[in-house]
Amino acid sequence: MAEGEGWGVRGPETSPGMKRRPDRHPSARTVLTARSPDDLVAVASVVLGFWPEESIVMLTFDAVRPFHARVDLPGPADPPEAAREVAAMLVAPAVRHGVGRVVLLVYSDDAERAATAHGALAEAFAGAGIDVVEALRVGGDRWFPLDAGPAHAGAPYDVSDHPFVVQSVVEGRVTHASRGALARTLDTDPRGLARVRARLASLREADDVVAESAWAAGVVVAHLDAGTAAPDDEAARLLVGLGAVPVRDAVWSVLTRERAREAVELLADLVRRAPDEHRAPVAALLAWAAWQSGDGALAWCAVDRARAVEPGHGLAGLVAEALTHAVPPSATDPDPGRRAGRDAG
């Protein structure tokens, strides 16, 4: 059984006004049961939210909370030890969380590179006492058992209308063509950015950070309740306010796990309209909300956006650390006030 919700580890891996946001992330947790290689290929794309390319994907079983992970497949120019390093990167969280069995999917048309990676993976998981129940190389239109050797002809697959994929569409989940396509969902909206910049030009800096913190938290809660996006004047004020740690923490404190899926939509919209100088805090909050909602891939994309403009951003680093070590969202402090009081500037 592979769960359609989880978090990821990564290797050396919009309109103005009160527009209603679509509910892309239903709150109910979906459980997907895989019984064949085609099922596994479909599961991987659904739980990741994108179609992997030149990647190693690990699906885990038997842990208290199973999770999935994706790392980049070592490239032809990487040193020989790169495959062992990637294998160690995947084994570490599996051991930490008591995983008993894994499925490994290597996405590449390069059979030799996939075999090298598989050798390192098999050795590492065997050494950790974790059973690899299935290992496949997934090419453009065929999957190949990695244990069968290069002579195996493989089997054709087409998961475009697979029940898991159809179910995810019905539930409002989007599976992107690649990780790059997922990352591009956070690209700047030029018109939205221009409108926000126009509001910023006439915006005065808040004199009372306590009052501004209360306003920001209240506005965010109101939009989460209503399922609406922030209009441009509010967006500008929020983006400026979030640059102050007390204001950022006030908003962080209302991003509870129960509201995380709704918060992803609200914050992603703000990221798309944020000027570079105001993007890091809101992108870090988006990373937090995405991780809390079980969308590790989007969380990593948001971390990248924050670090692109502020490499040492504290909250972005906190989320990155949690993702790298496959820390489950349930391990975070349930008291939002204590959580936001930590030093994650």
Automatic annotation (TrEMBL):
Q: Tell me one Pfam family matched here.
A: DUF4192
Superkingdom, taxonomy of origin: Bacteria
Q: Where is this region: Disordered?
A: 1-27, 326-345
Q: Where is the composition biased (Basic and acidic residues)?
A: 335-345
| Name of the protein this chain belongs to | DUF4192 domain-containing protein
Taxonomic source organism: Nocardioides marinquilinus
